[in-house]
Amino acid sequence: MSDQLVNDLEILAELFRNGGWRELRVESAEVGVLFSTDAGAASLGAEPTPASVSAREPDAARSAAPATPASATAPPPAALQTSVDPTWHVVIAPNLGTFYRSPKPGADPFVEVGQHVAPDTEICLLEVMKLFTSVKAGVVGTVAKIVAVDAELVEGGQVLFYIETD
Fold first, then answer.
1. How far apart are CA 9 and CA 3, in angstroms?
2. Which of 31, 61, 66, 108 is most buried, judged by most C-beta within 10 A?
3. Quick check: is 84 in a domain?
4. CA 57 from centre of chain
5. For residues 72 and 128, what is the distance between their CA atoms, to the nearest angstrom?
6. Which ranges of the chain have pLDDT less than 70?
7. Which residue range forms the structural domain that includes residue 15?
């Protein structure tokens, strides 16, 4: 298995784990992956059901081979299953970097849960090798959940925030 495929599976697993989804099915000519919180989920060879076509939550890619369903592992901890509305806008990290909620140490965070934001509202910074990337909300809405932890490394494609759109 290539390093890129492993990295992609880890990103999918993190998105699934933090996304509040129940099932996510990804298939291509080379690989098929099923993440599911339902132990009775249909295997990859089975015809997808309407419920399995819509994305719902990742768990096992860090330790699973591509065709291993996530239902073969324990469900994610309850803390990761806190309610995430699938209609919420997901703000993902555009690149790898250290996640910062405030513009400088000791300053107030850019945003808090419950705060109303506009598309151009700066909501965090990502820093890699002294280069800072400003991340904006991208939509009009209310910050519903902050997923990333301040001053910790995040991967490109990792969920940072959920915003309930207006």
1. 10
2. 61
3. no
4. 9
5. 36
6. 1, 19, 29, 39-82
7. 3-79
The tokens for 132 are 């800072």
Which 3 state secondary structure label does DSSP give 12? Answer: helix
Residue 16 maps to a domain: yes
For the chain, what is the domain count? Answer: 2
Pick from 19, 39, 6: nearest CA to 91:
19
Question: Contact 4/149 with Cβ under 8 angstroms?
Answer: no
Specify the pLDDT at position 32: 77
34-77: per-residue pLDDT in tens? 777 776 665 555 544 443 333 333 333 333 334 434 333 444 44
The DSSP bridge partners found for residue 90 are 162
Q: Where would I find the beta strands (DSSP E) of the chain?
A: 23-27, 32-36, 89-92, 97-100, 116-117, 122-128, 131-136, 141-146, 153-154, 159-165
Strand order in the sheet with 116-117: 89-92, 159-165, 141-146, 116-117
Terminal CA-CA length for the chain: 43
